[in-house]
Each structure stands twice: as C-alpha cells, then as structure tokens.
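Hi support team,

I submitted a single chain yesterday and got back a structure, but I'm not sure I'm reading the token output correctly. Could someone confirm the output below corresponds to the sequence I sent? I've pasted both exactly as they appear in my results page.

Thanks,
R.
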Amino acid sequence: MRTIVIAAAAALAAGCLGGLKDVPPPALIYRVEAPSLPAGAPLAAELMVVVAEVAPGLDGPGIAGRWPGGRMDYLAGTRWADALPRLVQAALIESLQDSGRLRSVQSDLGRFRATHTLVVEVRRFEADYTAGGPPVAEVALAVSLGRASDRRVLASFTASASEAVAENRQTGVVAALDAAFARAAGEMAEKVFAALAAEKE
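Hi R., thanks for writing in. Yes, this is the structure output for that exact sequence:
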C-alpha cells in the first residue's frame, strides 16, 4: 500500500511539474505596411520625417485597444515588430520615397541635408471597442511641415481615418489598422505635396 501511495504522489508531482513547463505560444508579430501613394509631378525637396510624439500607451510594441470607461489594453498574443513610432516612421519614409515625387526622404538620423522637415505625432492607432460591437480601427496623425532654412511652418493639419474590423480576430484588427493608416497617410501625403508645390509657385 505504501508503494502505491508513493507511486501516486510521484505521478502527481511529475504532472504538476510538467504543467509548470508549459509556456504560452509565441506572440504573432506584425509590421505597419507602407501604403502606395499615387504618382505626380516631382518636387525639388529633400524631406526629413520625424515621428516626434505618440499618445500615451502607443509608444511600445503592444497593439492597443480602447474599451469603455477609458480603459486601454493590448491584444493578447500579438505585438508590433518594433515600437509603434519607429514602425510608423519607417512606413511613411518608404511610402514617400517610393512615390518618386521627392529628391530624397530620410529619418532624423539621416546623414544628408534636408530642405524640409515633416513632424508627425501619432494621436490614434488603436482598435476602438467602446461601441460594444465589433471594433473600429482608428488612426490619427497630427502633421506639421516646415522649411529647414528658416524653420517656417508651411502646413499644419490632422489626417485621420477609420476602418471597421471585418472579423474580430488579430488578423482582422491588424488589417483594419493597415487600411486606416493607408488612408490617413494618403491624405497626409496629398497635403504635404500640395504645400511643397505651392511654395515653388
């Protein structure tokens, strides 16, 4: 009988310790996709892109959700590939470079002269669950474009967009955030290009 009790205790201990070894699956990692911008006339400008500020709670790699009562949380089992400000900066630089409309585009760590600076504040980049139904992806970018030579502001505005989440899953939320970001970035680029073109007239 004593042998049976010892064996049962050993089996129970092994089961408990085995459970302690279980680890959650690795988080799914996403990047912010760089949207395509429409072609247009080239502009004689070298642009520096700076993502200077983000709203509280958006400065890390967590994919944020906003809930009733002013509560903010992050989607479980998923995250951005880097801190959100760096991903937004990289995506904007890539989009503006690929547009072919500017002579050069670089970050604030760039080694070349810039004629203009684009300062972006990320005010919203989250899934909004406050309505109680399927979430809505919200992106808002506060933008200032200035001339480097005299630090004169040429344009200041907010570009924003919303996108309903088709399926309340991680992939659906990220896809909706990408779509909202693409529209907000497109609005931003259109106004930036217009301000640069008006300066040369």
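A quick pointer for reading it: Strands lie at 28-30, 43-54, 62-67, 71-80, 102-107, 116-128, 136-147, 153-164. Let us know if anything else looks off.

Best,
Support desk
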